[in-house]
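It is worth pausing here to work through a concrete case rather than discussing structure prediction in the abstract. The textbook approach is simple: state the sequence, then state the predicted structure, then interpret. We follow exactly that order.
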Amino acid sequence: MEPSRSDDALVDVLDVLLRDGVVLRADVVVSVAEIPLVGIKLTAVVAGMETMTEYGLFEEWDTNRRAAAVARRQYGNRRRDREIDGERGRRTEEETGSRRTR
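Step two, the predicted structure:
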C-alpha cells in the first residue's frame, strides 16, 4: 500500500486557516555572555479578514478602509454629477447659440 497524495488536503488546510485562524507567538531574547541585551515578543495571526474582525483584530484598519471606500464612492458620484451637469451646460449653450444664429 503506497501513500496517496490528495490535492484536497491543501484546500482543507487553507479553509481551516482562513475560517478559524491560527496565532503564532514567539519570545526571542538576544544575549551576550548570558547577559540579555534585547527582548523581542512576536505575534503573528493568520486568518481570513472576517475571522480577524470578528475577534477584534484589524478592527481599526477595517473601519478606516470602509470609510475610505465610502469617501471614494461619494467623491466619484460628485465628480460624475459635475461632469453630467457640465455636459448639460454645454448642450444648453450650444442649443442657445445655435438658436441665436438662426
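Step three, interpretation. The chain has a mean pLDDT of 78. Strands lie at 22-32, 35-46.
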